Amino acid sequence: MANIQQVAKHSGVSISTVSRVLNNTAKVNEDVRRRVEASILALNYQPNPAARSLRTNRSRIIGLLISDIQNPFFMRLIQGVEEEALRHEYSLILCNSNENPQREQQYLDVLYSERVAGAIIVPVRERFGEATLNKFRERQIPIVTVDRRVKDKDVDAVLVDNLRGAREAIAHLIASGYCRIAAITGPLTVTTGRDRLEGYRQALQEAGIQHDPALERSGTFDAATGRKLTEELLELDPPIDALFSGNNLLTLGALDAIHAHNLRVPDDIGMVGYDETYWSSLSSLSLTTVMQPAYELGRVAALRLFQHLQNPGKQARQEVVLAPSLEIRGSSLPKEIHQLKVKA
What we know:
The protein is an alpha/beta fold. It contains 13 helices and 12 strands.
């Protein structure tokens, strides 16, 4: 494979001139530029991104650190980030913290040592730590959080209005005649878990339904937790008549527990889940779902990062909040319909 010295010799210019053409860092005579570009094509020269980063102190790579690669929601978010990165001619490093703060810190250290241009992070804790942020600041590596916010005052966030999404879901269940509505949500140490629980509580309060802590459960965002928490709720007396599930993996576990108790959705229990998945609209299930614009979430986070890269040090902190939507399907049909079925 040809190197930059061979390109310079082939085109009859200096190595620094070839470098200026490659990096577009200074004006080059148009005839000289065309001659260098022709040599690059003729010799099939491929610039070394790592070497270029060392020379210019600027990388063409951004890091994306997500919290759970098994969650289908993050696949669409990744796609949004990746396509925007490619449009800006950047490559992507993907990391997975698996909801583990220690692993998150390890990957932050990796992204820093790899000299990424910037980082988009789904945080698993409320603060990154001042030492970590100072390192990134000193090297002018911007950080944007996505899906969840942190308390660090100068870190941008791109979010979905989780409080609104949960509140609309519960209001819909109440309007459909359900009154003993339980909720399983994610960890209260992250904003997605807290905001969805708060939205649930607000909807009950607005409808004049007394808050009952016995109907609330929280835990990690996974199917095993969804099953465990739902099993606890199904043992309550009097029984619950509807369930709000705080993400798609919790929903999977909840449905498993409901089936294990020989109950059916919506005949025995109404249900609304958070996060669209490919099985939500299946005719055999037809799950009412709070839809998140996952692709747009990733795309907007990438755009915000590139605003920082294009104007380093000149962007004030910004929080962008996108709206969710409620897709009403069969799992939350009005309760009176099921009562009529029983009488029939």
